[in-house]
Amino acid sequence: MTEASTYTITGETGEWEVVVGLEVHAQVTSNAKLFSGAATAFGAEPNTQVSLVDAAMPGMLPVPNRECIRQAVRTGMAIDAQINRWSRFDRKNYFYADLPQGYQISQLYHPIVGEGAIDISLDDKNPDASGKTIGVERIHVEQDAGKLMHDQHPTRSYVDLNRSGVALMEIVSKPDMRSPQEAGAYLAKLRSILRYVGSCDGNMDQGSMRADVNVSVRKPGEPFGTRTETKNVNSVRFVMAVVEQEAKRQVAVLESGGRIVQETRLYDPDRNETRSMRSKEDAHDYRYFPDPDLLPLELDEAFLEECRASLPELPDAKRRRYESAGITPYQAAVLTAEVEAARWFDALLEAGAKPVAAANWTTSELFGALNRTGKSIETSPVSPAQAAELLALVADGTLSGTLAKQVFEIMLETGQGAAAIVEERGLKQTSDTGAIEAVIADVLAKNADKVAQYKGGKEALFGFFVGQTMKAMGGKANPQVVNELLKTALA
């Protein structure tokens, strides 16, 4: 793919380049936690989804959840990453109130997934011309910590261990991004892939996917500068804001003679600024060592083949398939951005709709109606089969474009099928030349002055005659027949 355009910040001493890497924590979609059978449902009452393992009771031993491992491997395969047949769990030791064990089980030295790549685009109308490949360094699985609750008591903090032990994939990019737009495009594309694969629901507002944003600045061509890490950013828009604001802050510090401290920061969306949280964790000694309670993971070929065979058609492949059917690159990008929309559209094609007409109707009429009514594609009152029936009636001449819009509005309100509405309400388009000629004769007789102007060279009036004819026939006349008969009558 071609290189995306470079983003720079102009300071008093010249141009500065931004260097960005993301560490994305994605909660694995599974039936239980990484090392226990406890549930992981969002929004449960505090401390109701905690097993003895999660609470670190003495003598409790972890047992890896096969589905969590499977989902991590499938995610790696989806980004063409190296799958490590042998990997190992390590203990990362630190002490905090929401970490009952006093350590986190992670994978520092031998992750389950190695290097891969994600292609991004900054222009949906021309994806290939504005593309860039972002490297992924690794994906490892680890358990989440619990959560401290500071708003339940005026002088105390409470601990909720529902998230303790939840399986996370940490997806670490290479420092290949050079602008807020590239960081946003990377995170959106990664989220889309995870949702297609089914390994994470991508609900950033619920905390099941969040990003740590590493930002540094440098003069173009110089070595990387000192980076800061802004933790737990939970939307694509906020990630872009962090990159922009943190880069500007660093440039201001450096140009005033200061130096960047390697530290952990937090983002305040209300003030649109980052704030120092603590000195960078590199200064700490986590005393990593292999977890003595867990054997290394060894993946056999049968397991890997099952993972590979279970992968769905991914966004890029689906987009290329749509484009090969004549759908525009922009429409293909819109239709494949969210997995639910892509599945709905595939069902529409499977129901017999023609690709180009289906794409035009879905991206304009359907998406417009859903936005207007505040519904999602999953809650659409019109099913793919009903939409295919409507488009078929347009294709065979039963409905004009205008009538199809009327029928669609009725479908949205009632949930009825298009054919039933057409029959019940008499909305069928007419191609009866005799009836249309009679109406045209009446329209021309009533507008003799405009007929004279048209024949005198004012050809723009042709649209007026078409409109008057269609209006007189209640929008039921076949527009193509109307145009042909009008041209004859006005010749």
Automatic annotation (TrEMBL):
Q: Name one GO biological process term.
A: translation
| EC number from the UniProt entry | 6.3.5.-
* Asn/Gln amidotransferase domain residues: 343-490
Can you tell which superkingdom this protein's organism belongs to? Bacteria
PROSITE patterns hit by this protein: GATB
Which SMART domains does this UniProt record tie to the protein? GatB_Yqey
Q: What InterPro entries does this protein's entry cite?
A: Asn/Gln-tRNA_amidoTrfase_suB/E, Asn/Gln-tRNA_Trfase_suB/E_cat, Asn/Gln_amidotransferase, Asn/Gln_tRNA_amidoTrase-B-like, GatB, GatB_C_1, GatB_Yqey_C_2, Gln-tRNA_amidoTrfase_suB_CS
Q: Which terms in the Gene Ontology molecular function aspect does this entry carry?
A: asparaginyl-tRNA synthase (glutamine-hydrolyzing) activity; ATP binding; glutaminyl-tRNA synthase (glutamine-hydrolyzing) activity; transferase activity
Pfam families given for it?
Answer: GatB_N (PF02934), GatB_Yqey (PF02637)
User: According to its UniProt record, which reaction does this protein catalyse?
Assistant: L-glutamyl-tRNA(Gln) + L-glutamine + ATP + H2O = L-glutaminyl-tRNA(Gln) + L-glutamate + ADP + phosphate + H(+); L-aspartyl-tRNA(Asn) + L-glutamine + ATP + H2O = L-asparaginyl-tRNA(Asn) + L-glutamate + ADP + phosphate + 2 H(+)
**Keywords, in A-Z order:** ATP-binding, Ligase, Nucleotide-binding, Protein biosynthesis, Transferase
According to the record's subunit comment, the protein's assembly and interactions are: Heterotrimer of A, B and C subunits.
Give a short account of what the protein does: Allows the formation of correctly charged Asn-tRNA(Asn) or Gln-tRNA(Gln) through the transamidation of misacylated Asp-tRNA(Asn) or Glu-tRNA(Gln) in organisms which lack either or both of asparaginyl-tRNA or glutaminyl-tRNA synthetases. The reaction takes place in the presence of glutamine and ATP through an activated phospho-Asp-tRNA(Asn) or phospho-Glu-tRNA(Gln).
Q: Report the sequence similarity comment from the record.
A: Belongs to the GatB/GatE family. GatB subfamily.
Q: What is this protein called?
A: Aspartyl/glutamyl-tRNA(Asn/Gln) amidotransferase subunit B
Q: Which organism is it from?
A: Sphingomonas panacis
Name of the gene encoding the protein in the UniProt record? gatB
